[in-house]
TrEMBL record:
Localization terms from the record: Mitochondrion inner membrane
Principal place of residence: mitochondrion
GO biological process: mitochondrial respiratory chain complex IV assembly
Any Gene Ontology CC annotation: mitochondrial inner membrane
Lineage top rank: taxon: Eukaryota
Name of the protein in question: Cytochrome c oxidase assembly protein COX20, mitochondrial
Pfam families: Cox20
Keywords: Membrane, Mitochondrion, Mitochondrion inner membrane, Transmembrane, Transmembrane helix
Transmembrane segments: 30-48, 55-73
Family listed: Belongs to the COX20 family.
Length: 118
């Protein structure tokens, strides 16, 4: 039997009751960037034209574009980071496996010059 606070912490914050913002990578930052983009584009359009309804529409479009752009940018960077981590892990694993053996590239004997010492 868990307390109500523990179950709320595990559940996280759900946007519109659907998206669990804390569990989805990059979602929190994307939503925050989208809110900023929405306010900026809506206010700038309103200051330029004084049209309230159209400013709301432009602000909503700004929210959507900024949120999606930020989310995709973050996800692509996370994918690149995972690829780099996998590459480094393989290198570390190979170093551990081959260390001290004949196949260790660090201990390869240098090829002797057939013409003799120079």
């Amino acid at each position: 039997s868990r307390s109500k606070e523990e179950s709320e912490k595990e559940e996280g914050f759900k946007l519109l009751g659907i998206l669990d913002v804390q569990r989805i990578p990059c979602a929190r930052n994307a939503i925050l960037h989208g809110a900023g983009g929405s306010l900026t584009t809506g206010m700038l359009y309103f200051l330029a034209t004084s049209r309230v309804r159209r400013s709301f529409d432009v602000g909503f479009a700004g929210f959507m574009l900024t949120t999606l752009g930020s989310w995709f940018y973050c996800r692509i960077n996370n994918a690149k980071l995972r690829v780099q981590q996998r590459f480094i892990q393989e290198g570390i694993k190979n170093k551990i496996v081959y260390e001290g053996s004949v196949l260790d590239p660090i201990n390869k004997p240098k090829a002797e010059n057939p013409s003799g010492p120079s």
